[in-house]
Amino acid sequence: MTLLTTILAFLCSLGPLIIFHELGHYTVARLCGVKVLRFSLGFGKVIWSRRFGADQTEWVISMLPLGGYVRMLDDRDPDTRASTDAERAREYTRKNVWQRIAIVAAGPIANFLLAIAVFGGLYMVGMDEVGTRVRSMDAATPAYQAGLRGGDRVVAVNGEPVATYAELRWETLKAVLDKGGLRLDVVQPGGARYNATLPPAALAGKNVEGDLLGELGMPMYLTPVSIGKIPDPAGPAGRAGMLPGDRVVSIDGKPVPDGSVLMKLVGQSCGRTLAFVVERAGRSLTLMVTPELNKATNVSRINAQVMSTPEMVKVTLGLVDAAVAGARTTWQQSVMSLKMIGKMLTGQVSLTNLTGVVTIADYAGKTARTGPVEFLTFIAVVSVSLGVMNLLPIPVLDGGLLLYYSLEVLTGRPLPDRIVELAQRAGVVLLVMLMALALFNDVMRLTQAAPTPPANTYVRCPND
Questions:
Q1: Cα-atom radius of gyration of the chain, to the nearest Å?
Q2: Beta-carbon contacts of residue 19 (< 8 Å; ≥ 6 apart)
Q3: Which of the four pLDDT bands, split at 50, 70 and 90, describes residue 451?
Q4: Which domain holds residue 180?
Q5: pTM of the prediction?
Q6: What is the C-alpha separation between 245 and 176, in angstroms, rounded?
Q7: pLDDT tens, 336-365?
Q8: Beta bridge mates, 58
Q9: Which value, to the nearest 10 degrees, does the dihedral of the CA atoms of residues 162, 164, 166, 168 take?
Q10: What is the average pLDDT score of the chain?
Q11: Cα 104 to chain center, whole Å?
Q12: Can you tell me where the transmembrane regions are (predicted)?
């Protein structure tokens, strides 16, 4: 069932993005007077086709749903060459260079417009997102040394307001990639405000691919710990008399403000009996709990669901503000994608970050199972990535054609056919290599990923 959900989610996310992209090409081509012969969703063997409109454009679904194309009248291809004077007037290469640029650029632009619409729509409906309050951090972290403490809420980064943890991470990531510092506007639990500064040196060398904020000392705030389901009454929690709804106050005299602290203390016990102080119906009780250690996985557990969730905030905007926020988010995603590509090209970020259709399908399935907001957000992010990717100056991609036409604008004449042909061949080779690398990374990511135990339930013990 999970595999079926993943496949359906993948098709339902990638399919509309491809259709929007190709509709961009199709619409502008028609506006520029170019005759469109075929609109295809997918590549390879045609499995369904119908003809519509005055031009009898063929609309088809092809075997491989990993892309699409719009085929126009084009004298460079014997199969699509114009045969009459009327058709020659509607042939693609006879259009001026600015019309050809508009037709090519319309595909990526359609993806960006779709992302803006989806992000904007989500902001209008209202999105529940993790807030910017941070929990207790290690004293050795840059954030602690800058003055932050558990419970503080970051409201701005380098002058940019932040209302969600995602925005906080985004602004921090930009600072790291720009090799700058952080100037944080912070509000304490009592309402007092102060500023904290993390210099560029504190951000240098931080892992942009992992838990960047946690590494800097700004882990997301978690609510106080309460016990959820206890699946096995004969397990450690059940034997100790723990009940669903108990709120954990301390363990062995150490305060437990959130689930991360509980996991750490349980992990450090590795089989030693712990004194849990819990609150139940207004009473304080002490329960002696002996965690179990699974020697095969080296994981300690109390066999109880630990409820400690991030603090959520609801972000809801009006029509105009939502549109602006959608455009801003799309722009930020685009810039960050380009920066990451640049970092990979210069070796500052590992090429293992390059992902392909397998990872996209995996995330499509995961977000679809999480909820509609997460799935729509995923679609918007992929739409931005598709737009950015197609604008890369690689022959055979839209960006490669835009590069040709830009040179034509500068020189006043089109590139020689021989140069274009050689560039196209090189582009195909490069694209195949990138796809192979992305597929390799996808496979390695799936085969090397260790099984993840249920959240907040298991804690890995140190080896003896």
A1: 28
A2: 41, 68
A3: very low
A4: 128-220+310-315
A5: 0.70
A6: 42
A7: 888 888 878 887 777 877 888 888 888 888
A8: 38, 51
A9: 30
A10: 87
A11: 26
A12: 101-125, 375-397, 422-440
Residue 422 lies in a domain: no
450, pLDDT greater than 80: no
What tokens appear for 327 in the block? 């455009």
d(CA 170, CA 334): 12
Please classify residue 212 by burial: count the beta carbons closer than 10 Å to its beta carbon, then call 0-12 exposed, 13-18 middle and 19+ buried.
Answer: middle
Q: Which residues are catalytic?
A: 22
How far is it, in rounded angstroms, from Cα 240 to Cα 236? Answer: 6
Domain finish residue from 315, 336, 371 = 315
Q: Mean of the pLDDT values across residues 251-279?
A: 89
Lateral strand order in the sheet of 160-161: 160-161, 153-157, 182-187, 193-198
Read off the tokens for 97. Answer: 């260079």
* Structural tokens at position 111: 């993806």
Dist. CA 352–CA 151, nearest whole Å? 35
Hunting for tokens 């969703």 — which residue is that? 41
Residue 36 lies in a domain: no
Same domain, 212 and 231: no
Structure token digits, residue 249: 């106050």
* Encoded tokens for 312: 């959520």
Residue type, 399: G
* Per-residue buried b or exposed e for 360-386, using 16+ beta carbons within 10 Å of the residue's own CB: bbbbbbbbbeeeeeebbbbbbbbbbbb
* Helices 398-411 and 97-125, axial angle in degrees (round to 10): 140
209 within some domain: yes
Phi and psi (nearest 5°) for 33? 80, 20
In the block, residue with structure tokens 């085929």: 71
Coarse DSSP helix, strand, coil percentages of the chain, rounded to the nearest 5 percent: 50, 20, 30
CA 451 to CA 268: how far, in whole Å? 21
Q: Any idea what the CATH number is for the domain that residue 245 is in?
A: 2.30.42.10
403 C-beta neighbours (distance < 10 Å), count: 18
Distance CA 391, CA 349 (A): 21
